[in-house]
Amino acid sequence: MYNFLLIDDYEGEIDSFKDTIEVLNKKKGEIFYNLDIADSFTSGMEKINETFDGIIVDIQLDNNKSGNEIIDEIMKKTRVPVVVYTATPDVRDDLESIVKVFKKSEISQEEIINYLCNILDTGLFNVLGRMGIIEQKMTEILALHQ
């Protein structure tokens, strides 16, 4: 089972993603995909502390808050694939190398879910340990040789 987090404050987009997940699960004949929702900036910041296989973030969130701030926090806390799905792709240049940016009018939600699953199926994020285990071990090794 894949467990994804959607951070988006637009109810229409949230409902559409839920429908997409429902259709994908029906195709599989079982609950194969789970979608948790954070419908505000604050909720998104809280939920990134939980464990997800992938995270989908809108850039323009409530109260003029930016999804860029959420992406910064995700990168500090965990190693999971992050996708920006937005109508206003105003992603900071330094983040574009670590997240995939999709404009809402150019890709379907099913394609985004498939994109995340394909990345996860490589096993790369299992190797990374989702919490930066490789970085932790490298730091320990380097500390021993100082």
The succession of helices and strands, N to C, reads: EHEHEHEEHHH
Shape: globular
Number of strands: 5
**Largest sheet report:** 5 strands, parallel
> How many distinct helices?
6
| Termini Cα gap | 43 Å
Q: Rg, please?
A: 16 Å
Please report which band the strand proportion falls in: under 5%, 5-15%, 15-25%, 25-35%, 35-45% or over 45%: 15-25%
Spans of at least 5 consecutive residues whose pLDDT stays below 50 are none
> Structural class, please?
alpha/beta
Report the mean per-residue pLDDT as an integer. 85
The percent range for helix content is: 40-55%
**Largest beta sheet: what is the strand line-up?**
2-1-3-4-5
Can you walk me through this structure?
- The protein is of the alpha/beta class and 146 residues long.
- It is 45% helix and 17% strand.
- It contains six helices and five strands.
- It has a five-stranded parallel sheet, sandwiched between helices.
- The model has no long low-confidence stretch (mean pLDDT 85).
